[in-house]
Amino acid sequence: MIEYTPGPWDVEEGYLTAAGGRFTLGYLYKWEKDAPKEAAANARLIAAAPDLLDALIAIAPPMPPFNAPCHNNLVSQIDCAHCRRIADAHAAIAKATGEQQ
């Protein structure tokens, strides 16, 4: 079970909020300081994080066994770009869920 504040997350005047504004998750320091466009872009990415994680978990196929042949034995898993993308997806999920230290 993933233990974070449930979404949806939103951005309201530099504050990252959840549950329709009932919870403040953080304030984006640069919102009104020296980089408001960058802060707004960061805020949108942060606010989308729970949705992105849920979507990635839903679409990431199981990781094939290490060094398994891919594509009817045409390439090894190590040389397969598709397998590398699957591994990257699993690494991102592990990072977001705290399974990767």
Descriptive account of the structure:
This protein is of the alpha+beta class and 101 residues long. It folds into two domains: 51 residues, no CATH class; 42 residues, no CATH class. The strands form two sheets. The protein has a three-stranded antiparallel beta sheet with strand order 1-2-3, with helices on one face. Strands 4-5 form a two-stranded antiparallel sheet. It is elongated.
Number of helices: 2
The proportion of residues in beta strands is 15-25%
State the distance separating the first and last CA atoms.
Answer: 17 Å
**Proportion of helical residues:** 40-55%
Largest sheet strand order: 1-2-3
Mean pLDDT: 80
What general form does the structure show?
A: elongated
Question: Largest sheet, described in full?
Answer: 3 strands, antiparallel
Tally of strands: 5
Number of domains: 2
Give start-end ranges of low-pLDDT stretches. Answer: none
Q: Determine Rg (CA atoms, Å).
A: 18 Å
Summarize the structure.
This protein has 101 residues and is α+β, with helices and mostly antiparallel strands. It contains two helices and five strands, in the order βββαββα. The chain folds into two domains: 51 residues, no CATH class; 42 residues, no CATH class.
